Structure formats: structure tokens, C-alpha cells
């Protein structure tokens, strides 16, 4: 790691940079998580506005805020029970979020 402080992006306001520089590492990590979630949501909303496909719009309507639009629904079996999960790739990792039980009506 360099002993030099990181250079902030030129498009950040001085007030924001100053506030970040005065923040604790824990608060900076909280800000980073929030900023990523906010960016993902805004990107998802922008894609939703651009799409003309009813199928995609319907799928995205039920998508939780913290699940990216590129997520797919998968089924996992745990202790002989089947559950739906949202699943997506995040860098080198595969992430999942519980959606609900698979109906046994079929």
C-alpha cells in the first residue's frame, strides 16, 4: 500500500471529499456499501425505463432493491425442501438472496 493518500475523482465536490476525508474507516465502508447499492438501483431503474419488453419489466417489478437486474432465479434444495433464490455474479463471486419457497402444487 502506498503511503500517499488516494486522489479523489475530479467530479466530486470539495465538500464531499472533505467529509469523506474526515470520516472513520467504518463510516467510509458504510458509505461505500450504500453508494454501490444506490448505483446498482439507479442503473436498474435506468434499464427498466429503456426497456420495451413486458417480460423484462414484469420480472424487474418483483426484484428487491439489493438484487441487480442481471440476477436469475434458481432453485436450491435444502433438507428435502426446495427454495427460490435470486442469483447473480459479482466479480469472481456468485451471490444469492432468498426469494421464497417453491410451491408444491405441481
- Categorize the overall geometry: elongated
Oligomer class:
single chain
Largest beta sheet: strand ordering: 1-2-3
- Mean pLDDT metric: 81
Into which percentage range does the β-strand content fall? 15-25%
Number of alpha- plus pi-helical segments = 3
The largest sheet is:
3 strands, antiparallel
The beta-strand count equals 3
Write down the secondary-structure element order: HHHEEE
Query: How many structural domains can be distinguished in the coordinates?
Result: 1
Radius of gyration over all CA atoms, rounded: 19 Å
Distance between the termini: 56 Å
Region (Disordered): 40-63
Biased composition (Basic and acidic residues): 40-61
Domain DUF6788: 58-103
Organism: Halorubrum lipolyticum DSM 21995
Task: Tell me briefly what this model is.
The chain has 106 residues and is of the alpha+beta class.
Describe this structure in words.
With 106 residues, the protein is α+β, with helices and mostly antiparallel strands. It has one domain (14-101). Helix content is 40%, strand content 25%. The protein starts with 13 loop residues before the first helix and ends in a 5-residue tail after the last strand.
Task: Please tag this protein with its features.
elongated; alpha+beta; DUF6788 domain-containing protein; DUF6788; 106 residues; 40% helix
Secondary structure layout:
Layout: H1 14-21, H2 25-50, H3 54-61, E1 72-78, E2 81-90, E3 93-101
Antiparallel strand pairs: 1-2, 2-3
Protein name: DUF6788 domain-containing protein
Pfam family, one: DUF6788
Organism: Halorubrum lipolyticum DSM 21995
Amino acid at each position: 500500500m502506498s503511503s500517499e493518500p488516494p486522489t479523489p475523482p475530479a467530479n466530486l465536490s470539495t465538500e464531499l471529499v472533505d467529509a469523506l476525508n474526515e470520516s472513520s474507516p467504518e463510516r467510509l465502508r458504510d458509505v461505500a456499501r450504500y453508494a454501490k447499492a444506490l448505483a446498482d438501483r439507479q442503473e436498474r431503474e435506468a434499464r427498466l425505463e429503456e426497456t420495451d419488453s413486458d417480460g423484462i419489466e414484469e420480472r424487474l417489478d418483483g426484484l428487491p432493491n439489493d438484487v441487480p437486474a442481471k440476477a436469475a432465479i434458481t432453485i436450491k434444495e435444502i433438507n428435502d425442501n426446495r427454495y427460490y433464490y435470486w442469483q447473480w455474479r459479482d466479480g469472481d463471486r456468485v451471490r444469492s438472496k432468498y426469494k421464497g419457497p417453491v410451491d408444491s402444487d405441481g
